[in-house]
Inverse folding.
C-alpha cells in the first residue's frame, strides 16, 4: 500500500511546475524527520528518494540521499564515541551524550547561536571535541543547539519528574538551580540569545500547557519587564512529560531562498 501511495505522489510531481520549491520543502521536512526520529521507516525514505531520482534526475535528490547516508555514519560515530568513553573513564562528563555529526553541504542551513551553555553541558561539548580530534584533525565542528534535546530531572515537591526539553529550554531551566528568581533581561543576558528566542522559550515554560516557571505578572504574553520563578508545586499525572517549543514558521524563508536560486538559474539561461 505504501509503495502504491509513493508511486502516486511521484507521478503527481510530474505535473508540478515548481519542482525546486517542492524539493526545498521536502528537504526541510526530511531533515526534521531524520533528526527527531519522526521517520516511520528508513527504507520508505530511501524508496521514495529512488523514485524521485528516476523522475527528476540525480541532482534533484543528491543532497537528500547524502542526508540519509549521513545518519548511518553518525550512528557508527556514536558507537565509537561510547567505546572511547568506556576506555577513558576520566573523560566521562557524567551525562549521557548523543551527538549526530552532519555534513554541512547536505542539510538545510540552521542558525547556530553562541548559546551560553550550562557548565555541565560545556564539559560534554569539550569531551566530544577531543574525541572527534582523535579521528580527524581537519574538520571543524559547528554546534547547532537549536536542534538538540535534553532529558532532565525536575525535582518538584510532589514528585520528581523527567522533562523532555530542547537544549535552549534546558539551559534556561538550569539557571534556576543557582537562583530562585530571575528577570527577563537576566535570563536573556545569561543565555546570550535574541529577543525572539527568549520570548518563545519563556512562553513555552511559563504560559503553555506545562507551567514549569511561575511568571509575574501572571499574563499570557511575555514582556521584557517580567520576572520568573521555579514552580516547585508543579505536578502532572505522567512521570515523563515533553515540553514542546513551538517551531518557527519557515515557509516564507524557504520561498525566498528558492527565488534567490532561481535568479541565478534564469541569469545563466539568458547568458547561454
Amino acid at each position: 500500500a505504501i509503495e502504491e501511495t509513493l508511486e502516486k505522489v511521484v507521478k503527481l510531481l510530474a505535473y508540478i511546475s515548481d519542482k525546486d520549491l517542492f524539493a526545498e520543502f521536502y528537504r526541510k521536512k526530511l531533515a526534521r524527520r531524520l533528526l527527531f526520529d519522526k521517520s516511520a521507516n528508513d527504507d520508505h525514505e530511501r524508496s521514495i528518494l529512488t523514485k524521485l531520482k528516476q523522475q527528476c534526475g540525480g541532482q534533484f535528490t543528491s543532497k537528500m540521499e547524502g542526508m540519509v547516508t549521513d545518519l548511518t555514519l553518525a550512528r557508527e560515530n556514536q558507537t565509537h564515541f561510547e567505546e572511547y568513553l568506556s576506555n577513558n573513564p576520566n573523560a566521562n562528563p557524567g551525562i549521557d551524550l548523543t551527538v549526530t555529526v552532519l555534513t554541512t553541504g547536505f542539510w538545510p542551513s540552521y542558525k547556530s547561536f553562541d548559546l551560553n551553555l550550562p557548565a555541565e553541558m560545556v564539559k560534554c561539548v569539550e569531551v566530544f571535541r577531543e574525541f572527534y580530534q582523535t579521528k580527524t584533525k581537519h574538520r571543524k565542528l559547528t554546534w547547532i543547539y537549536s536542534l538538540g534535546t535534553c532529558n532532565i530531572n525536575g525535582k518538584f515537591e510532589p514528585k520528581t519528574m523527567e522533562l523532555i526539553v530542547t537544549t535552549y529550554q534546558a539551559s534556561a531551566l538550569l539557571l534556576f538551580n543557582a537562583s530562585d528568581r530571575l528577570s527577563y533581561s537576566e535570563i536573556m543576558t545569561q543565555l546570550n540569545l535574541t529577543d525572539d528566542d527568549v520570548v518563545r522559550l519563556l512562553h513555552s515554560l511559563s504560559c503553555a500547557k506545562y507551567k514549569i516557571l511561575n511568571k509575574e505578572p501572571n499574563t499570557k504574553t511575555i514582556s521584557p519587564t517580567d520576572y520568573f520563578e521555579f514552580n516547585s508545586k508543579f505536578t502532572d499525572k505522567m512521570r515523563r512529560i515533553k515540553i514542546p517549543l513551538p517551531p518557527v514558521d519557515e515557509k516564507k524563508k524557504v520561498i525566498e531562498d528558492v527565488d534567490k536560486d532561481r535568479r541565478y538559474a534564469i541569469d545563466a539561461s539568458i547568458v547561454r
Notes: DSSP finds nine helices and six strands in the chain. The longest strand covers residues 149-155. The mean pLDDT is 83.
